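Same chain as my last thread, 147 residues:
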Amino acid sequence: MSVGIVWFRNDLRLERNPAWAEATIHHDTVIALYVIESRLWQSAGTRPIGALMGRLYALDRDLAEAGGRLRVRSGDALSIVLQEAGGVDAVYWNGDVTPYAGARDEAVTEALAGRAHEHDGRFVHEPGSIKTADGEPYRVFTPFYRR
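reply #2:
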């Protein structure tokens, strides 16, 4: 029996979620995981926390309708993902472009030694891939939007 984990972060949805789709195609059992990262949680205000709780509840409800549940853990993401990944075949997630997320994801990928599968599920186009005729990034929104 093949087991995979989908590590949910900002993409708290099942539909049109490439990490979720890939995991459910390749594994008999898929564990849905969300990590409340202490470092990020401490700096969040009440409204963002309330909004996050609502989105987590909605995701858990969607998973329950499909016969699963959302596993929520709190602490250091690297430690928790590695702990949860013990004995599973692969871990999937949708990438992020912030410096913090990039460093964290690189550490997780290295530690999982070939079992990590990062997907590009948050953007229509990779950040920085839409350029002016001169090959430079856009500095004004309207020409970027038109392109």
